[in-house]
Amino acid sequence: MTHAIEIKDLHKHFGQNEVLRGIDLTVDTGQVVCVIGPSGSGKSTLLRCVNLLEQPTRGTVRVRGVEVTDPDVDLDAVRRHIGMVFQQFNLFPHMTALQNVMIAQQRVLKRGRREAEVVARDNLEKVGVSAKCDAFPAQLSGGQQQRVAIARALAMNPDLMLFDEPTSALDPELVGDVLAVMRKLAEEGMTMLVVTHEMGFARQVADRVVFMDGGGVVEDGPPDQVIGDPQHERTRAFLHRVLHPEG
Questions:
Q1: ∠ Cα 24 61 203 (to 5°)
Q2: d(Cα 13, Cα 159) in Å, to the nearest integer?
Q3: Predicted pLDDT at 46
Q4: Can you give the pLDDT at residue 153?
Q5: Helix, strand, or coil here: 146?
Q6: What is the C-alpha separation between 81 and 153, in angstroms, rounded?
Q7: pLDDT tens-digit readout, 134-179
Q8: pLDDT tens sequence across 38-59
Q9: How far, CA to CA in Å, does 225 sit from each of 34, 95, 168?
Q10: Burial of residue 76, with CB atoms counted within 10 A of its CB: 0-12 exposed, 13-18 middle, 19 or more buried
Q11: What value does the mean pLDDT take over residues 187-211?
Q12: Is residue 241 classed as helix, strand or coil in its secondary structure?
């Protein structure tokens, strides 16, 4: 069976700083894998290597069987199958929510204006912001902007979605709306690799949880094991800090 994502011996250096130290990781089609760990552990760099926003120093990354680290790969073709949602929403400030969701469809997929608008409206409705079609980003809350960003990614009909701490820039009361959209995507069978610090979401929605520290994978397993009964001291210490910040 072809994995949706297959990462082997992935290394990434920034100058003298070794951020990823030989990562091996697979994500199967339809799986939700949440990556947790302290700041600086390499989580976001790992995610950005999957669609080559960062060029790995060594190792291979395959997406749906295609090696994206091959110098001759058609990267645009691969990226068409991958949706990515960032911490920052990266919406065009001079465009409405609807226009933000239409533009990549028109430019990359060459959809006509009418089709792109239909797809955009469908996806804005799916994420619960259809009433904000004509609003500009500055008129939207952070949570609404992030849901527009998710709609924009979904409008490209991706086979898998990468989420890089999608709730970290949001006020706490807005986090739930975004996680609800992600939960719904998971229920619909979307393959998802999610870097997150939302332990409740990871525990409830993930098929697997990967704990990273120091540029490597320390633990990888079902959420009840990794979060509920971690085997490694580093995992236990991290979870204690996250789940019991007062203690």
A1: 50
A2: 29
A3: 96
A4: 96
A5: helix
A6: 10
A7: 999 999 999 999 999 999 999 999 999 999 999 998 988 889 999 9
A8: 998 999 999 999 999 999 999 9
A9: 13, 45, 25
A10: exposed
A11: 95
A12: helix
* pLDDT digits 0-9 by tens, 168-194: 989 888 899 999 999 999 999 999 999
Q: Which residues of 87-113 are buried (b: 16+ CB within 10 A; e: fewer)?
A: bebebeeeebbbbbbbbbbbeeeebee
Average pLDDT of the chain to the nearest whole number = 94
DSSP 10: E
**Alpha carbon of 172 to those of 37, 143, 168: distances in Å?**
20, 10, 9
Give the chain's end-to-end CA distance (angstroms, integer): 45
CA angle 15, 20, 24 (to 5 degrees): 150
How many C-beta atoms surround the C-beta of residue 161 within 10 A?
A: 22
If we measure between CA atoms, which residue out of 50, 41, 120, 121 comes closest to residue 83? 50
Cβ-in-10-Å burial (0-12, 13-18, 19+) of 143 comes to: buried
- CA-based diameter of the chain, in Å? 56
Task: Please answer whether residues 126 and 154 qualify as being in contact, where contact means their C-beta atoms are separated by less than 8 angstroms.
Answer: yes
The answer to whether the beta carbons of residues 28 and 4 sit under 8 Å apart is yes
